[in-house]
Amino acid sequence: MQQLRLTQKLLQKLSPQQILLMKLLQVPTVALDQRIKQEIEENPALEDSTDELFENDTNEEKEIAEEERSDEEFDLTDYVSDDDIPDYKLHSNNYPEEDKKTMPFASGKSFYEVLRAQLGDAGFNDKQRIIAETIIGNIDDSGYLERDVEAMVDDLAFTQSIIVTEKEVLDVLKEIQKFEPSGVGARNLQECLSIQLRKKDTDDPFIYTALKIVDRHFDAFTKKHYEKILRKLEISEEALKSSIDEIVMLNPKPGNSLAETTKTNYYIIPDFIVKSEEGELVLTLNSRNAPELRLSRTYKQMLENYSYSKKKTKKDRETLQFVKQKIDSAKWFIDAIKQRQHTLYVTMQAILTFQYDYFLTGDETNLKPMILKDIADKVNLDISTISRVANSKYVQTSFGTILLKSLFSESLKNDSGEDVSTKEIKKILSNCVDAEDKKKPFTDEQLVSALKEKGYNIARRTIAKYREQLSIPVARLRKEL
Length: 481
Prior knowledge:
Elements: H1 16-26, H2 29-42, E1 46-48, H3 59-68, H4 111-117, H5 126-137, H6 149-159, H7 166-176, H8 189-198, H9 205-216, H10 218-222, H11 226-233, H12 237-248, E2 272-277, E3 280-285, E4 293-295, H13 297-308, H14 314-354, H15 356-361, H16 372-379, H17 383-391, E5 394-397, E6 400-403, E7 411-413, E8 419-421, H18 422-435, H19 444-453, H20 460-469
C-alpha cells in the first residue's frame, strides 16, 4: 500500500556561477586568454572591450524608457547598464601595465626531415629507400629506433606489400646509423654510445678502452663497479678515468643535439609578480591574458527594442528570452573573472605574508612549514579553493619563477623543538651531498649523522625518501674516480 509522507532534507548544491568560478580558478594565466576567447565565441553577448566606450543615454530618453517598460515583468536596468567599464578590470596598483611585446618563435626543419635529407647520399636502391624511410619514421626525437626489426618486416609486408628479410632491414639500419647526428638509429643506450665511439679515432688508447668498456662491461660501468673493470681490463686507474671521461662526453640523446629540431616549447607565464621596492615586497597580478570584457552593445540594443515593443509575437518573446539568457551568461562570466582575480590576489598575499623571509631572500632554508589549511584559515576560504589556486599557478620573483604548490610542505621538529619545513631539511641534505668527497660519497647512515650534527634528528629511511625525491642516487652511484 502506497503512503504519502513529508520529509525534510538538507541539500547543498553548487550554482552554475560557483561551478564556473571553480573552473576558472584552476585555469592558469597562460590558458585564461584561450578560455576567454572560447567564451566570446560561444556567447555573442560578450565581447572584448577594445573599442571606445559608448555615450550614456540622456535623462529625457531614460524617462521615456521608464514609462514604456513600466508594465514589463523584468527590470531592464538589470541587463542594460550605463557603465560600460568592466568592474573586474579596475586598474590599480595590483595590475601591471600591459606588456605589448611579442615573443619571437624560431622555426626550422624537423628531425625527421633532417634524416630524410641524408637519404640521397646513402646510395640506396628503390627497395632499400623504402626500408630506410620506414626506419626513419620509427626513430623518435631522441634519435633512438623505437620499433623492433621483426615488427618493421611485418609493417613493410602489410602496408607496403614488400617482402624483406631481417638481414636486409639490419643492413639498411647500419647505413642509417652512419648519418648525422652521431649515434642516431641506435636501439638502446649501449649501442648509441658504441656508434659514437666507433666514429672516433679508435687508435687512441683511451677511446679504444672506452669502446671495450661500453661493448663488454657496460653493466659494470652503469653500476660504477670500477674495481671490476680495472681487474678485467688490467689497466691503471688513471687510464680508466680518462676512458670514462671519453664516454661521459658522448651524447646519450643524439636527436636533441639538432638545433633545427622542432619541438613544442612551453613558456611559463607567471600569474603573480613579487618585486622588492625599497626593501619591501610588492605583489601584483599578471593581467596580460585577461582582456577587458563587457556586454555587447548590439545585444543590449536588441533587448531594449524587444522590451519597448508593446505588441510581441511568440517569436519576439522567444527572441527576448534568448537575448536575456545570453546577457545573463555574459554577466556571470564577467563576475566570475572578477571573483577569480580577487581570490588569486588575497590567496597570494596570504602566502607572501606567511613566507615573507623566503620571498625576501630566496633562501629555501627560510621556508616555513605551510599547509593548505594555514592559508585557508587566513583568507577564510575552503581548502579546496586554495588547492585550485596553488596547483597550476606560478609566481615570478627576483630569484626565479616558482610553482606555488612547491611552497607548501609539512613540518618536522628539530632538536630545539622548533617546527622546520621539510623543504629546509631537503635543502640541507642537498648541500651535504654537494659538499661530499665524490671519491668517498656519504652513505645514508653518514647523512643521518651529518644532519644530526646540524640539529635535525631524522631516521635513515626518511633520508632515503628525501634523497629519492631530490633524484639523488645512492652513494655507490655518486662515486667518481
